[in-house]
Specification:
By secondary structure, the protein is an alpha+beta fold. Helices cover 38% and strands 17% of the residues. Strands 6-5-4-9-10 form a five-stranded mixed β-sheet, with helices on both faces. A three-stranded antiparallel β-sheet has the order 1-7-8. A two-stranded antiparallel ribbon has the order 2-3. Helix 5 packs across helix 6. The longest helix is centred in the last third of the chain and has 31 residues.
Length: 310
């Protein structure tokens, strides 16, 4: 009996509550908020360190040729010693911004560059230069010379040593060069807690003989085909074979992908020219053969004809 009364009271209470809700006498908190009421959860703010790191492509930017650095032999040089429009013997160059005591990334970058150059027939010192500049003003000539010796040996062509240039410089000159290239970096603490290391991105740049930034290649592994075509383009086809010149006509450097992409329209144009010259050559041979048949040489007519005093 008591159990039945409990059930009846529960049913009555539920009915009264439903009636109150339907008439608006009782309001319940909404379970689903409208779109405008939704709140976005807390987001992590970008690290101030990461905001300073990156590579902005300054294509066709002129490098400041008056900057002074010290080369791996301890000699004071200017960037204009490697570039400039006045001298006819200037070559394109591959530029790498690193620091020589980098524990990992810089070594991977230079190793990748050497591995790619091993598969390119062009040679440093003859066809182009390799310029490696340190972003650490505390690094000196001895360290630069040691790094040069390591990578020239790794490259396997000691006769090209005069085409490899490992530079060190002062902070103002380093800043001017990195800003011109668009190379962003920042100091970070090393294992000892001191600001002795650098956070930076990885890329190499191809520079024209006049000292203008022509192409960027990101990462630590580089395509030998892209490097070859990039050097040919930067030299205005002064280096490379006729085949390379044809390839640079059909392939174009794409700054979005940092690779050379095939231009279909130019391939079609080239194919049309080849077809036209082939057809023209064939028609010329046919016309020439028909002309010879209709107009044989005089001596051939006498030999094949009747004797005059027979």
């Amino acid at each position: 009996m008591q159990y039945r009364n409990t059930i009846r009271r529960t049913v009555r209470l539920a009915g009264a509550l439903a009636l109150a809700i339907s008439t608006g006498a009782v309001s319940l908190p909404a379970q689903v908020s409208s779109y405008g009421d939704k709140q976005i959860g807390p987001q992590n703010a970008p690290s101030p360190i990461l905001s300073k790191i990156g590579i902005a492509q300054h294509l066709n930017q002129q490098l400041p040729l008056n900057l002074t650095f010290t080369d791996d032999a301890g000699k004071q040089i200017q960037l204009g010693d490697y570039f400039g429009s006045a001298a006819a013997d200037k070559r394109p160059a591959i530029l790498a911004l690193v620091y020589y005591q980098c524990p990992m990334l810089c070594s991977e970058e230079l190793n990748g560059l050497v591995s790619a150059l091993e598969m390119v027939s062009f040679r440093p010192g003859r066809d182009f230069d390799v310029i490696v500049a340190s972003i650490d003003p505390s690094e000196g000539t001895n360290l630069a010379a040691s790094k040069k010796q390591t990578y020239v040996k790794r490259y396997g062509h000691p006769e090209t040593a005069n085409g490899w240039h490992f530079l060190t410089g002062t902070q103002p000159n380093i800043d001017a060069l990195t800003q011109a290239v668009g190379f962003g970096y920042t100091k970070i603490p090393g294992p000892d807690g001191k600001l002795t290391q650098f956070a930076h991105a990885s890329a190499i740049q191809i520079v024209t003989p006049q000292g203008k930034l022509a192409q960027y290649y990101m990462g630590v592994e580089y395509s030998p085909k892209d490097l070859r075509l990039g050097l040919v383009e930067a030299s205005a086809n002064r280096i490379g074979s006729p085949v390379d010149n044809i390839l640079t006509y059909c392939y174009h450097y794409d700054p979005g992908t940092n690779k050379h992409s095939l231009i279909v329209a130019r391939v079609v144009q080239l194919g049309g020219l080849v077809t036209m010259f082939s057809l023209g050559g064939f028609m010329w041979l046919m016309f020439r053969r028909d002309y010879r048949r209709e107009h044989p040489p005089a001596n051939q007519t006498l030999v094949s004809g009747t004797k005059a005093n027979g």
